[in-house]
Amino acid sequence: MKQFSLQPDPNHQPPTPVDFLKGLNKQQKKAVTHTSGPLLIIAGAGSGKTRVLTFRIAYLLQQHKALPQEILALTFTNKAAREMQNRIKALIGDRAKKLWMGTFHSIFSKILRFEAEKIGFDSNFSIYDTSDSESAIKLILGELNYDPREIRPRTIQRKISDAKNQLITPNAYKTRFVQSTLDDITARVFEVYDVRLRQANAMDFDDLLIKPIELFEQHPDVLDTYQDRFKYILIDEYQDTNHAQYKMTKMLASKYENICVVGDDAQSIYSFRGADISNILNFKSDYENAEQVPLEQNYRSTKYILQCADSIIKNNDKQLDKTLWTENDDGNPITVLENFDERDEANRVVQHIQNLKMREGHSNNDFAILYRTNYQSRVFEEAFRRKGIAYQLVGGLSFYQRKEIKDVLAYLTLLVNPDDEQALLRIINEPSRGIGKKTLNDLLKKSRDQKRSVWSIIQNVEGSDLYKPAISKIKQFVAMIHTLRNDLEAGASLLDTTKKMLEASGYVKALIEENSAKALTRRDNILELQNAISYYERHNKKPTLSSFLQEISLITDSDKYDEDKPAVTMMTVHGSKGLEFPVVFIVGLEENLFPMGGRDGEEADFEEERRLFYVAITRAEEQLFFSYSKMRYRFGEENRQMRSRFLDEVDPGVVRTETGATIRQNRERFSAEKSTPKNNDTEVEYDWKEPIKTKKPSSSGFEIETTYDNDPFQAGTTVMHPAFGPGKILQRTGSGKDSKVVVFFKQRGQKTLMLRAARLQVL
Fold it and tell me: Residue 325 pairs with which residues in a beta bridge?
């Protein structure tokens, strides 16, 4: 598409609005050209909401409604922000860089860097991730004489996070929200934790959302400045906003009310982290003059997939009225896989992936396996490894959460914020330099007694009552940090400073001397971190260590997904939000797994679980598979499973079922095939042979075709051909004389054979 500019180019006539809007449907045009007052865009899955948002921003600029720097666009992932930024840049050129566009956390941390001193922080404040917060809380629990093994720091951290997102202060929590012993402990920890963050010049993730509200309430002039700055506000995925995000954006929009929110109540799946679906449901009550535009045409999925999604979500009571439709083809019916247990489930899913790759030419990155909980990935990983299929696991341990990376980042954090207690405690004796646990406890006691940071104390340890041999080590450590800070202030590059720090601290030397495979892997990871620092410096005009640390602290799970990696993607349904794949497998569709039952005494929220299932379904573009098991091992015990209630809510006209054999039969076969060698050939991985019931389209809807277990030539059977050698049946079609089998032969590849003439022998 041609670029255009607000400033006329004498050599180029910018496109007219008609040219610009040409590719939009009627509802998309209405949303894009609405330029005055509040706007609610109900964007169904796959309806082109990102296109609408980017075109709307470009249209505002084209119509001279705002300058780029007067537009604030908020997203929930860095990936979404980058995608929007790139699309807008293609429309308006480099002026897109002046837009205020990014995640809530990145945008408001940027504002806080400018305004931090007004609320008692230094502009170089640290950002604590969840593990940093838990470490601080664990320390506080110990100081309050609670055993962190009995009172889990993570539990307290989550309760404090929930309170912060509801804008509940430590004092308010203590006086109004204590209803149990755990609440009482939380209140005591919350009060100390809040003080410690200020002493450390640090904010946690929740503070990045609530401190701007504190700033705006205490300084109305600052609020007025930002209201004038952001004449237009756009918010993506509005259904995922929590109370703090709702209040903050409402404050900013109250002057001009040019607020446009885009979302889908049917995709509200984050209540566990404070998301409030009422924010989108009540938008028109908050803004009386709001216009509402539904985007209902889906460009992503087939008709069958949409019909399936619609039949599910219609069972929810709380929803905005909309019906998705598409001009795409009907596509294939959704396949339901009934399995013996989770291993059988993994094997069959992998087998279907192999079949689709061979029959339809799919590549690995066309496939996604979505599950409700992370632990389900293990058996799929094992199945992929056995078959030699590349996969990527999204949502595992982040690169930046690895111990060695956290250590190096802690060193770097001290160079910009030496008062950061968590960073200091992490590396003051890492690698070991003779500053033992007793010395650290003595330093912490002095810090608490004197109400000073540990850093301020260790700068003057000469003559103190600390352990004498440790004093000289502390002085060497302080001198090293001072030298590195001075180097940075003198203009040293971030990469050179990092290399000097690694040498001066002896960190890499200690790994080399250890000379274990694990230590060498850690060294390689540190080298990769140096690559990241180098890349950052090369691609930023004014690189600073503070900005680099902020950038990596705000990396989310979705940023780890590489859509170009030639690998099957495995992730939770929550992690798949905003993504799409040609072929999707939704596995583990069993009661108390998906939907998840109530936890910790809370009642199960089946409406949100159903919305989560809806999100999973609408990730699929071309083909969709559901899968469940009759048995599943949990905590070392075999449990009989019930299929998910959601499967019974799916429109029966769009599904076909591959039904497994009985549990008894499969146990017998499993034992027999494991104990009996197959013609002295290499043992073939066990795949139990099953009768298959499939639903085939017919004039009256779908008819059932069944093949029986006493017929040996079923999918999964290992066979021998007189010319092609050993192989495995991948698919069986037809009946009687017209029966055909698709067989993959080790020596000759895939063949389609008429069964009556193939002369196959079962191995």
Answer: 297
Q: Distance between CA 587 and CA 569 in Å, rounded?
A: 13
The Cα 68–Cα 120 span in angstroms is 31
H helix or E strand, kind and range, residue 704 = strand 701-707
* Cα–Cα nearest to 175, from 162, 164, 188: 188
Distance CA 368, CA 353 (A): 10
Alpha carbons 5 and 22: distance in angstroms, whole number: 18
Nearest Cα residue to 403 out of 503, 506, 499, 511 = 511
Confirm if 572 and 395 have CB atoms less than 8 A apart: yes
> 429: helix, coil or strand?
coil
* Contact in structure between 689 and 669 (CB atoms under 8 Å): yes
Tell me how far CA of residue 376 lies from CA of 269, 558, 589, in angstroms: 19, 19, 12
Q: Residue 99: beta bridge partners?
A: none
Contacting residues for 674 by C-beta, under 8 A, at least 6 apart: 686
Three-state DSSP state, 693: strand
Asked if the peptide bond before residue 595 counts as cis, ω within 30 degrees of 0, the response is yes
CA 722/CA 761 separation, integer angstroms: 9
Question: In the numeric block, which tokens belong to residue 703?
Answer: 């008819």
Q: Do β-strands 692-698 and 701-707 pair in parallel, antiparallel, or remain unpaired?
A: antiparallel
List alpha helices for 64-179, DSSP H.
78-92, 104-115, 130-143, 153-165, 170-176
Angle subtended at Cα 624 by Cα 239 and Cα 353, rounded to the nearest 5 degrees: 125
Three-state SS at 619: coil
Q: Which amino acid is at 511?
A: L
Count the residues in the chain.
763
Instruction: Provide the phi-psi class of 145: left if phi over 0, else alpha when psi is between -120 and 50, else beta.
Output: left
Please answer whether residues 361 and 370 qualify as being in contact, where contact means their C-beta atoms are separated by less than 8 angstroms.
Answer: no
- Cα gap 572→46, rounded to integer Å: 19
Distance CA 440, CA 438 (A): 5
Give the end-to-end CA distance of the chain in Å, rounded to a whole number: 60
Nearest Cα to Cα of residue 104 among 81, 126, 75 = 75
Q: What is the mean pLDDT of each run of 10 residues along the chain (763 residues)?
A: 38 47 91 95 93 93 92 90 87 86 93 95 93 94 91 94 94 92 95 95 95 96 96 95 95 96 91 87 93 95 96 88 89 95 94 94 95 90 92 79 92 95 94 90 90 90 80 92 94 94 93 87 90 89 90 72 87 92 97 81 78 96 97 78 95 88 45 42 30 41 42 81 81 76 76 80 79
Q: What is the pLDDT of residue 633?
A: 81
Q: In whole angstroms, what is the distance from residue 684 CA to residue 446 CA?
A: 66
The rounded distance, in Å, linking the Cα atoms of 156 and 464 is 36
- Residues 213 and 165: their CA atoms lie apart, in Å, by 11
CA distance 473 to 468: 9
Distance CA 458, CA 476 (A): 11
Task: Specify which residues 625 forms β-bridges with.
Answer: 335, 585
**pTM: predicted TM-score of the whole model, two decimal places:** 0.76
pLDDT (0 to 100) of residue 737 = 66
pLDDT per residue as tens digits for the range 438-485: 999 999 999 999 889 999 999 888 777 888 888 889 999 999 999 999
Burial class (CB in 10 A: 0-12, 13-18, 19+), 319: middle
| Angle ∠(578,581,584) on CA atoms, nearest 5 | 110
Of 567, 582, 101, 558, the C-alpha closest to 302 is 582
The predicted structure's pLDDT at residue 399: 78
What is the SS3 assignment for 469-508? HHHHHHHHHHHHHHHHHHHHHCCCCHHHHHHHHHHHHCHH
Amino acid at 538: R
Q: Report the distance separating Cα 193 and Cα 195, nearest Å.
A: 5
Catalytic residue IDs? 49-50, 236-237, 267, 619
